[in-house]
Amino acid sequence: MLAIDCGEGGEPIAQRTIRLQRLMRDIITLDASKYAPQCIYMKTKLDLFQALADPSRRSIVEVLRNGERQVNDIVEQASIHQSGVSRHLRILLQTGFVSMRPVGQRRFYSLKPDRFRELDHWLAQYRSLWEARLDRLGAALEEKKARKTKPTEQPQ
Q: What is d(CA 71, CA 106) in angstroms, rounded to the nearest whole number?
């Protein structure tokens, strides 16, 4: 076999190509644990928000709020094509927002409350901040309204 030097460290082009292909495969499959283990927790949090960021997935969640449904029922109620519903349900399943219960050849989907509790717990950290700001805004609006309704006294 003829080894051709590629310039750095004397690595043959064939080996470098294989190494780069493996690296690209890992990047494409998002194997973050191999290259950035410190980002695993962040990646989990982002997945939670990314899963609900899509309007189609939010529509599916709204349909499932009314209880367990089959894919065809979700397609009809969410007005999304069947292939789209299946794709979005797979993502919601992978992120833990939805569970699937097989009954023969049918599949019933329902919401799993755990991920929504996790989301609510994360939002609760910021809720007091929002409420305090809204309380100050409400007080300022009330004060402005009181000043407008109070007749102004004119000097004589």
A: 9
